[in-house]
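pasting for ref
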Amino acid sequence: MHKHSSIIIGTILILVGLLFLVIQLFPGLAFNLDIGQQWPLIIVSVGALLILSALFGSPKLAIPGSIVSGIGGILYVQNLTNTWSSWAYIWTLIPGFVGIGLILAGLLGHQRRASWREGSRLLLISLVLFLVFGAFFNGLGGLGRYWPIVLIGLGLWMLLPRRQRTPKEKL
């Protein structure tokens, strides 16, 4: 398993190195890349490499891969739109990235049901936190005045009776 991931990472490093060598030898072939605006794509690429390694190697690498890719995506959008103040609430998406990683790791591994359940819980928690914090700090459109309704709904959901699972009898 680990041999596959090192082969993939090694191949990608060779291809990237060849690309930069060709650009240095033939500067006319270089494309205009404003690294001042595109630097978060480097972070997204590292995350994508981790996810690719999870695909062909260790499935657990999908968790850090989704976190790194997600944060790189956030940084990319913030850098393009110059909305750095959104960190006041956008950090709440990070547990959702963990949830996505758990789901991917479960799909690639053997614990599909457990990882799906835990991953979807983290996604739900992340979404609720994002809506609450986003409404509180940024307004999120018309939701800004009514963010307490989200809290009331969450409280009502927590009070709902849940089904009690009875453990199966041991044979």
